[in-house]
Model the fold of this input.
Amino acid sequence: MPEIYLRRGDRTPQGPYLLEETRFRFERGELAGSTMSWCGGERRWQSLARRWPMHRTRGTLSLLFLGLA
Done:
């Protein structure tokens, strides 16, 4: 199973975590979009919001559609 490492405020890498579990936690709002992430073979760290940008866009559009944003 694919794994991912996370890095938060203190910049200490944590993990590995299962990639799909991490995505699920991000989509539920348990992990901030600013949390940095890295998967094996990648050249650099990237934020979760950049890794999975559609999640935030869909959520915002849904709120706008419902008149809640």
The helical segments are 19-27, 48-51, 53-66.
